[in-house]
Amino acid sequence: MPRNTRLEQLDLLPYIGKWLVLSFIVACLAGAASALFLHALDWATSTREANPALIWLLPIAGFIVGWCYLRMGRPVEAGNNLIIDEIHDPKKVIPLRMVPMVLGGTVISHLFGASVGREGTAVQMGGALADQLTHILRMRPEDRRIVLMAGIAAGFSSVFGTPLAGALFGLEVLAIGRMRYDALFPCVVAAIAADRIGVLLGIHHTHYAVLEVAPLGLVSVLSVVAAGILFGLIGMVFANSAHAVGAFMKRRVPYAPLRPFIGGAVIATAVWALDGYRYIGLGIPSIVQAFQQPVAPWDFAGKLLFTVASLGTGFKGGEVTPLFYIGATFGNALAPLLHLPFSMLAGLGFVAVLAGAANTPIATIVMAIELFGPEIAPFAAIACIAAYLFSGHSGIYHAQRVGHSKHRVVPEGMRISELGAYRKQLRQESMAANPGKQA
What we know:
Blueprint: H1 8-50, H2 58-72, H3 80-88, H4 98-112, H5 119-137, H6 141-160, H7 163-172, E1 175-176, H8 184-200, H9 218-252, H10 258-274, H11 284-290, H12 299-312, H13 320-338, H14 342-358, H15 361-372, H16 377-390, E2 401-402, H17 419-433, H18 435-438
Parallel strand pairs: 1-2
């Protein structure tokens, strides 16, 4: 048999050079887009806070955004799910219009008071901009998948200032229980470079300080396991509720622009009636407060309801920052019950609710270390893994596949959105095989 005597390491040099260049281009595109977006978001937030009456224009703003997507944005309406689908089953290049559509839609949502996040916008912009290289460089499907994953990593990294977590998020979010290591180097390079580019362009990320970490012992570990289970259940409730409200609105309100109009009217009225201004927008001050002192024990539920109403009725943005809010305030509420420090439980909730809702435990463990320091690492690992397991096969991204089931056997490669129909079919087959049980 012929043998290849050439050193494998020599063959890797062109590979490294190729992906250094491509990843840096992706990072420049995603980092610059995220910087523009975050500056616009700061303006929208400060303007809304200075003019609280803008909340009453939320229905009109929602209608306008919904109408624009109906007329011009149908090919990109699926957002993050479109990018995940294109990585799994490449069909056509993501239209560039996704960038201005999601950028404008998210800024308008924040300006008038919807409770949405920002990661969805950054990820969509990063993915869409990266995918334009497919046209220019005539990429093979295998390379296109990696470029899209690098775009996701760069977008996530640049918007949160967590480059290692961003790289892992781009690898981990595609499938439950499975990561693609062929994209590891490009995702790491793109995430680190995008974060640095954002900083060069004037982006400043909020600092969250965990002031005290409990000693590592049996009682503290068991307490964190209990907290992690609850964080996972909250992540599951959030994901399932957002999908349920979205599906309900699509069934009941066929005309798409009316959905955010109705949602905006409900949200504006609720904000006025409940004095719920702390539950709209990103809610960064409330997150910071949860690390410093006790907050109202119902704050997590308020943010969850306002965010589900906003996303479920069609407002544009992301889920991750609201999940940070929900997790931090819920952890704050649990702290006295579990006899753990407020800031520690707030930090664990911050990452663990996301771990459960997005099925990304490794990325969120690393995020905890990047944001809060290495001392919290053992507890973050326990909380994030417990949350991931107990959130079940649900998630905020419908296009996410099952790479490896968590506990109960689920067919590999199935989309999260298909699991409901699969379970229903199993129940019907079980009842047909055992008619006596049905009675």
